[in-house]
Amino acid sequence: MTTFPSSPFGTEITSDDIVAKMQTFSGWEDRYRQVIQWGKKLPTMPDELKSEQVVVSGCESQVWLVSQNIDGVWHFCADSDARIVRGLIALVMAAYDGKTSEQVQAFDIDGYFEQIGLITHLSPSRGNGLKAIVEQIKNLASS
């Protein structure tokens, strides 16, 4: 089993941290720039983990997502070939990485995205891709 690269999302940078930071911005352009900055902090997925089997369907960009459950706690590694999508993945990882199945299922992702105040500014295809990533995580955590 390949070890996932260490990620600050879900541990050092939590969903509460994301919401607090995003609420300091008044305009969506600043939020967008911050999302791209978080995407730069997302570790690159090792090439050996990238395969057709782990591609998230429903995303316009290439998105890969793998998971491990260690002692009842879920760890995710995800990556994309698009900068903004890497940032959106970071937002999702902050919400779900390092959580139990129960915590993953119970997390109010719609409320989280609403608090961030960015989703209404995403294109429909990006929004659908984001939903596809969340659904894949929830499905993995329910198995």
From TrEMBL:
Residues 20-139 form the Fe-S metabolism associated domain. SUPFAM superfamilies: SufE/NifU (SSF82649). It holds the Pfam family SufE. The active site is at C59. InterPro entries: Cysteine_desulfurase_CsdE, Fe-S_metab-assoc_dom. It comes from the Bacteria. Coiled coil: none annotated. Belongs to the SufE family. This is Sulfur acceptor protein SufE for iron-sulfur cluster assembly.
